[in-house]
Amino acid sequence: MLGMIGVICYLRERRLRPAAWLSLAAEWAGNGRLRAALLLLAAMAPVAACQAQSTAAPTITQAVESPPLLSPTPGPPEAHVFVIVMENKSFEAATAPGQAPVTSALIAQHGLATNYHAVAHPSLPNYLALTSGDTWGITDDGYHALPAEGLGDVLTRSGVSWRAYMEGMSRGCTDSPYPYALKHNPFAYYGGRCPPNVVPLTTLDADLVQDPPRFAWITPDLCHDTHDCPVSSGDAWLKDYVGRIMASPAFQSGGVLFITWDETDGSGDRVPALVLTATGGRRSSATRYDHYSMLATVEDLLGVPRLGASRAAVAMTDLVSG
Predict the structure, then answer these.
(1) pLDDT at residue 17 in the model
(2) How far apart are CA 67 and CA 191, in angstroms?
(3) CA quadruple 41, 47, 49, 53: dihedral sign
(4) What is the pLDDT of residues 39-82, one digit of tens each?
């Protein structure tokens, strides 16, 4: 049993208030009448006595473990992400060297998903899948006002800069003439309005030089995306715009460029998906991917929550990191 001085010193070391000393010590002693005596001893017990007690072999010991030091989870790199969506060509047609020499050359120098798939027909539900992780049950190319739950909405709420560049858009999202196509501008559907982030493609060059957004979506017009024109026309357009993007500081400083086709020409659902990085290097992946996989990869690179079916999708990490 602890001596009386030991009790007082023990309580002092715990920095208990006097009232707590009395209650606890009297309880130990089993006699409430000792309260007054303990109070007197508490006041009189010399500090030296407590110091002497501390040098003796301790009667009561407590093991205190320090909490482990946790390293913060590193955030996503400040990479610039670009997406170009072409139109209506099968894997074989879009990558044939004879009609698509530029695309073939990019494949030889960068990443290619050889088992990548569209998720629907016709065009619009594929564009919605790429930008919200959901087709919303849509099976046509008409206009549908959808909830404001697209990728652009998430980026805006997360403070991530973005723009969607639409070739041929001259009078706004909903009333620009051919060869612009509203059905290829998914950002005009979410919230039933055209956000200010949707701009004509003619603004891209200035943005690449001055202040490019973290996320850039690019839709060619109905000829350059090969919807209404030969593959060779789209391939020449890619040579021009991919060259501009790859020469930009935004791409050179760790940027990633995705190029895919929304759907096939009706023969199955396998389409190409190219992943271009500043470091380059030929690589391919036979993992089964689809539009939800690309969306998941974009979301992860930008550090925002995943949407819809992209939550369960496998990201295309093997092609991004090489």
Answers:
(1) 43
(2) 47
(3) positive
(4) 333 434 444 444 444 433 333 333 333 333 333 323 345 899 99
Q: CB–CB of 41/85 below 8 Å?
A: no
Question: How many distinct helices (H) and strands (E) make up the chain?
Answer: 13, 10
pLDDT tens per residue across span 96-114: 999 999 999 999 999 999 9
Task: Look at the block and give the residue holding tokens 């093997």.
Answer: 318
| Tokens (6 digits) for 33 | 């009448």
Which residues have CB under 8 Å from 45's CB, separation 6+? 5, 8, 9, 12
Q: Which two tokens stand for residue 94?
A: 């879009």
User: Residues spanned by CATH 3.40.720.10 within the chain?
Assistant: 81-320
**What's the pLDDT band for 300 if we cut at 50, 70, 90?**
very high
CATH 3.40.720.10 fits 81-320, yes or no: yes
Is the pTM here over 0.85, yes or no? no
Residue 322: predicted pLDDT: 65
Place of tokens 């974009």: 298
| Per-position b or e across 222-259, b if 16+ CB within 10 A of its CB | bbbbbbebebebbbebbeebbeebbebebbeeebbbbb
Decide: 236 and 102 in contact? Cβ < 8 Å.
Answer: yes
DSSP H helical segments within the chain, as ranges?
4-13, 18-29, 35-44, 47-55, 91-95, 101-109, 123-132, 151-157, 204-209, 231-247, 249-252, 291-302, 317-320
